[in-house]
Amino acid sequence: MIVLGIETSCDETGIALYHTKYGLLSHTLYSQTEIHNEYGGVVPELASRDHIRRVIPLIKQALKEANICLKEVNAIAYTQGPGLAGALLVGACIGSALSFALEIPILNIHHLEGHLLSPLLSTPSPTFPFVALLVSGGHTQLIKVNGIGEYILLGETVDDAAGEAFDKTAKLLGLDYPGGRALAELAEQGQSGRFKLPRPMRYSGDFNFSFSGLKTAVSTLIKNHHITQQTGADIALAFQEAVIDILAEKSLSALMQNGLSQLVIAGGVGANIQLRKRLVRETTNIGATVFFPEFEFCTDNGAMIAFAGAMRLQQQEINYQHSMSCFTVRA
Ligand code: KG4
Ligand code: ZN
Known about the structure:
CATH superfamily of the largest domain: ATPase, nucleotide binding domain
Distance between the termini: 33 Å
Bound molecules: 5'-O-[(R)-(carboxyoxy)(hydroxy)phosphoryl]adenosine, zinc ion
Radius of gyration: 20 Å
Number of domains: 2
CATH class of the largest domain: Alpha Beta
Shape: globular
CATH topology of the largest domain: Nucleotidyltransferase, domain 5
Strand order of the largest sheet: 3-2-1-4-5
Low-confidence stretches: none
Mean pLDDT: 94
Oligomer: single chain
């Protein structure tokens, strides 16, 4: 079976073809970052209009790269939400039109399930059960994953998501949107120990997170210092160290409390090199293993949607809507 995946939830148009036997056949992506850069954030109207322009050429390109024709596609999977309404509608419309014209099934995929399952596209891949840390621009959640559609929420952020905190802090430091990656790069030049930031909810005794206070602490630091390149880098490093400390500590304790030995990281912040290094080191120390998606599948993409669609097709959508209730819709 070949599934065509369509992702249009925010500012990336992602298309992919996934074969249930041979794996990922092709994937294409167009990022609108440059369009939104000058506004310091995503402009929903511009995002929707650009998805309309990109979606068909990207589908054609994906088919060409996979060396198949449209009639060979057996099912359509598109991102149903959460995301920007106008942007999501583009994917829903093109997906429904293709499903209607080709007379094939259509699967509405939860964006977060796509992220959650994206590490399973890599080899070696984790086996169920595992603990997943979902760290994106809109979400920060720890989830116990017992199987496809069997998700138990262990904890989540009570305010900002980790990626959102990276982006807002980057903006305070004068970096372009989305600032997570730029902030991580700036932090590479920072001196550790010059600034000490709080670790919110470190000892809360649960698996919840809070990042908005950290952003406020950075804002206070910036007000009280003359921001040279080096000071900016030192602040970026202090911020990144605080976020990584909290994410790593809570993930490890979720793993141990649940008696599991596989940790899966998903979502855009999973591209952070220092977070990866820290988790590799700490899971190894306790005899556990950490799995990450390929860098290109950390942020939004069509491959994770095609893959989630293929898994659901094989599971025949059992209890699907019910099993998605663990993902809190915040955007
Ligand atoms: O998963 P994603 O593409 O979007 C959502 O579904 O929200 O994640 C995007 C987030 C942004 O906040 C971005 O700044 C952050 O991931 N991000 C990073 C890095 N690369 C992307 N954060 C920290 N370090 C990075 N290297
Ligand atoms: Zn996403």
